[in-house]
Amino acid sequence: MNTPIRKLGVVASMLFCAVLVAASYIQVVQAPSLDARAGNSRVINDGYKKERGSILVDGKAIATSVKSNDKYVYQRQYSNGSLYAPVTGYNSIVYGNGGGIEGASDGVLSGTSDSLFYRRLADVVTGKKPAGANVELTINPKIQAAAAKALGNRRGAAVALDPKTGAVLAMVSSPTYDPSTLASHDTTSVVNMWKQLNADSTQPMVNRTISGNLYPPGSTFKLVTTAAALESGKYTPESTLNGPATIRLPQTTHSLPNDNHLPCGDNDKTSLTHALEISCNTAYAELGMDLGQDKLAAQAKKFGFGQVVRLPMRVTPSSFPSDMNTPQTAMAAIGQYDVRVTPLQIAMISATIANGGTQMEPHLVKNVVDSDLDVISSTDPKIMSKPISSDTAGSLKTMMEAVVNNGTGKLAAVDGYQVAGKTGTAQGDTSKAADLWFTGFAPANDPKIALALVLENGGDQGVETLAGEVAAPAAQQIFEAALR
What we know:
Blueprint (H helix, E strand, L loop, with lengths): L1 H28 L1 H6 L4 H7 L7 E3 L2 E8 L6 E5 L2 H8 L1 E3 L3 E3 L2 H4 L1 H5 L6 H10 L7 E4 L3 H11 L4 E6 L6 E7 L12 H13 L22 H11 L7 E3 L3 E3 L6 E3 L11 E3 H6 L3 H11 L1 H11 L5 E2 L3 E2 L10 H8 L9 H12 L4 E2 L4 E5 L5 E4 L4 E3 L4 H17 L13 E7 L8 E8 L6 E7 L11 H17 L1
Helix pairs in contact: 8-17, 10-12, 10-13, 12-14
């Protein structure tokens, strides 16, 4: 009789221990990951019972929480939501926080960040009602508005940086959406809007400046190829290059033409400066083959290709292909083949040249402040790398000025200021019009803004459209807003 009872007792004890271990594991080990899981309604509902911090631009709230007349206590409101959606992201009782600062800085906005521990402790002692901290951004509202206007209803993206600090001055993705439609407390309408936005083939919820399907950079990549050539010591801005109207790519039956189907100079010869000025494909393809894929890849890596950057939102790394044959290297040198970039990466290249060869770490958060706007923490400018020498940066600056003064970027010129730039016409899907680029900085002698702008599929202006005709004047509008 005692033996069966003892066995039953052992089994019961083991089951009790198993339940205890499982409960402890879930409550202690798994708790953080379960709390962070998207769509965890308990955590989401709890978060709405205290005031979430605001997101500020130039001292004004573009996202804030207001009292609601329901069980959630607070509801998120967005001022000019469509303009700032790529920056703010969304706050939703159904889908949580994501898409921008709402997700990347959730701990600060909700007040749960470890960095706010002592402030939470002080609130408990003083009896102050718990609330999240405010996040003040580096965005310049005038430049942001100008970038949105420049893109209009066309698909594409624009991003602007302060070359000297790395501060993000503008971040616009088109088409966009209004995060207020996801902040509603009507769950049925939120679910329907979420389905509609995600089913939209134009992908309005994708922040094209830092993520999504990356772009071929086209001739904007010639800045990287030029940097590699100058850094190699084999070339100067005055070096003579072959620049025929077309070249036969080695090991293939394919030919590479210039956009205008003309030679780039007398006797099929051109200088490196003139080749960049008029964006000579044949000269740069031959230059790329001479430098070789290793030098091109090394220079791209120095500029940040392959590196993860956080703004605090994660930026998808740009990529440069490996294990290329000779004709693939030629095409990569002009920003084609499998080279893929974010607009932010291209803006960082221009910003580096503008800043004398020093690349600053891009950042979107200026300060974290409390409800009285007292600063809790600030983001100090930080050097990211030194991709090129100051001499190379100086040469590239002069060459980019020539692009705007006399070359493909004339329509980016701003009266009274010297603009430095580079156009790019990038063929991705050959069944569609090319993506059109402009990147550059101004004023060239004391840069206040560096930018990159891309318009998808010819900016809806036809298959034969070139970047200098569409992307350059769009960039000019942004420069005007920044400089005047």
